Amino acid sequence: MDDVADRPLAGILLRLLSGILFTGMMVCVKAVSVDVPLGQTVFFRSVFALLPIVAFMAWRRQFPAALATRRPLGHLVRSGLGAAAMFASFAAVARLPVAEATLLAQLSPVAMAVGGVLLLGERFSLHRGLALALVLSGVAVLVVPDLQGPQEGVRVLGYLLGILAALLTAGALMTVRRISRTETAASIAFYFVMVTTLAGLATLPLGWVAVSGETLGLLVLSGLFGGAAHICMTLALRYAEVSRLAPFEYVALIWPVLADLWIFGLPLTSGFLLALPLVLGGAVLAGFEGRFKRLLRR
């Protein structure tokens, strides 16, 4: 098996593509969020995500051999964190504009840096402290203006769910980076989708609804986009270091902004515009901590 982080250009291009695909998925999810229960959306998104994943494995002649694993516990941890993140993320985008939900997802790099200190015993550096301060300031700027708005409860709950999704995603990505040294990208995505499918199916007794043809089409597209996006993201993390991919995380914010403006007719709020440089600045510091340190030593 080839080493990780040895094809940075491929990793960057795959990360950019995954951003477009993830935005397409979130647009579909938001479009059906009023009519379709959360668990039902997660189920359909996960079932139809299997199609691109299995097709990818078959194209690489890895199916079903690639499903063999030496890290079953690692897959379980990654998939459990990812499934919880999906529920929280979909619940957030149902209550927030796509751009704001996506911006909150950018908390993940900072959460990963802080997680390294709390869980892995890494040193708490000035860069990490400053990154955390910037991100917390950005979240405050985003949330505080809505504490007295007409939809205060709905939006604040959306913000909390978005933050929770970012924290869970950080844990999932840390696990992906670790198990991708021995596991294939397809198997990581496959087992994740299987767990989320079962998690969504478990909500059936809570009440699912009959859907129209148009809604079913959006649910199918959410799965196809999501499955392809996860393949691209997993490969990107395999081919390039997280710090190298960090700046390209922010290019992905272009597509949600356009989706809000052109598809949903939602204007950008002043809170979002003020929070954007703070959150992205914190994420840049967290993602490039090692490079900043090397520059300061010169």
Automatic annotation (TrEMBL):
Domain EamA: start-end pairs: 10-143
Keyword Nucleotidyltransferase: no
Transmembrane segments: 12-32, 38-59, 80-97, 103-121, 128-144, 156-176, 188-210, 216-236, 248-265, 271-288
Alphabetized UniProt keyword annotations: Membrane, Transmembrane, Transmembrane helix
SUPFAM superfamilies the record matches: Multidrug resistance efflux transporter EmrE
Domain of life: Bacteria
Cellular component annotations (GO), alphabetically ordered: membrane
Bilayer topology: Multi-pass membrane protein
Any Pfam family the entry gives: EamA
Compartments, record wording: Membrane
InterPro entries for this protein: EamA_dom, EmrE-like
Major subcellular location class: membrane
Protein name: EamA domain-containing membrane protein RarD
Source species of the chain: Onishia taeanensis
Lineage: Bacteria, Pseudomonadati, Pseudomonadota, Gammaproteobacteria, Oceanospirillales
